[in-house]
Specification:
Largest sheet: none
Bound molecules: heme C
CATH class of the largest domain: Mainly Alpha
Number of domains: 2
Distance between the termini: 69 Å
Number of strands: 0
Radius of gyration: 20 Å
Helix content: 55-70%
Structural class: mainly alpha
Strand content: under 5%
Low-confidence stretches: none
CATH architecture of the largest domain: Orthogonal Bundle
Number of helices: 11
Shape: globular
Order of helices and strands: HHHHHHHHHHH
CATH topology of the largest domain: Cytochrome Bc1 Complex, Chain D, domain 2
CATH superfamily of the largest domain: Cytochrome c-like domain
Mean pLDDT: 92
Length: about 230
């Protein structure tokens, strides 16, 4: 009897962990397949209007308060990877979680097309559409006071990865930051430091932890104004 109880006590949490972690991993892998297929921009636009526009706004410029990031002009790889991480629970985003799962992506196409598309195809289509949009600079900005300091710090510590023009690098899945909402960028400092983006680039994480928010503020301000 005692042995049974002990076995259950040990095995139950272990198997629950396995199930939830296993599912998250699988969800992520399914979505990552989208990296290998070609997206259809026109179809992506239709699906975006159905599934994403309520939060990320028309033309994917994000909301004026910076709660929802701009997605316009972001690299396809970045969109796909971030979606996979959100759906898989590797990036904590409770607001968007229900809209990022493979099931939600498929169901968003059920009314649009005669046959629902696979989640992999849906994601590739949306990513192709988003990458094709021009980056808007009508996003939230910081105080604009010490932009030269922000520029200097960005060019010495960040531009090696994110590019001097802030456009990131498609092949390496490094996000474009130019024109992004200042409020969103500032929030990401806390998000990274709290460990809520579990697949974050370790080099960048160390770099951010070593800098103060007052130092990073002007960098984000500078980026939000970059065309
Ligand atoms: C209910 C609101 C909501 C809906 C609907 C929604 N999102 Fe989001 N999305 C968010 C929020 C909030 C964030 C930012 C979370 C944070 O601050 O980390 C986000 C972040 C993202 C990011 C990460 C951006 C980056 O720069 O890393 C991507 C990619 C994204 N959303 C794509 C989509 C797509 C594609 C859809 C439609 C299938 C969608 N979202 C639907 C709320 C939403
Ligand atoms: C070693 C390469 C590297 C360096 C250096 C680097 N980053 Fe990043 N950064 C990345 C990668 C890769 C991502 C996307 C995936 C992740 O790590 O979350 C990212 C993501 C980000 C994001 C989130 C973007 C979004 O859309 O959510 C911000 C903000 C950011 N970086 C700012 C900075 C700043 C500011 C610096 C300099 C202080 C910096 N990065 C230096 C590689 C780097």
């Amino acid at each position: 009897m005692k042995v049974w109880c002990l076995a259950i006590l040990v095995l139950l949490p272990l198997s629950l962990f396995q199930i939830s972690y296993g599912n998250a991993y699988e969800e992520k892998q399914i979505l990552l397949k989208a990296l290998k297929i070609k997206g259809d921009i026109q179809r992506g636009a239709l699906i975006y209007e159905e599934a994403c526009v309520a939060c990320h706004y028309e033309n994917a410029v994000g909301d004026p308060a910076g709660t929802f990031p701009q997605l316009a002009g972001q690299h396809e790889n970045v969109i796909i990877k971030q979606m996979a991480e959100i759906a898989g629970g590797f990036r904590v985003n409770l607001t968007m979680l229900p809209y990022s799962t493979t099931k939600a992506l498929v169901s968003s196409t059920e009314d649009l097309f005669k046959h629902p598309l696979t989640s992999t195809q849906v994601l590739a289509d949306i990513a192709a559409y988003l990458a094709s949009l021009p980056i808007s600079i009508n996003t939230t900005k910081g105080p604009g006071k010490i932009l030269d300091k922000g520029k200097k710090l960005f060019e010495s510590r960040c531009s090696k990865c994110h590019g001097v023009n802030g456009k990131g690098k498609a092949v390496a899945s490094i996000p474009a930051l130019a024109g992004q909402n200042y409020n969103y960028l500032m929030r990401q400092i806390d998000v990274y430091n709290k460990g809520s983006r579990k697949k974050a680039n370790p080099v960048m994480l160390r770099l951010m932890k070593g800098l103060k928010k007052v130092e990073l503020g002007p960098v984000m301000d500078y980026l939000s104004r970059m065309k």
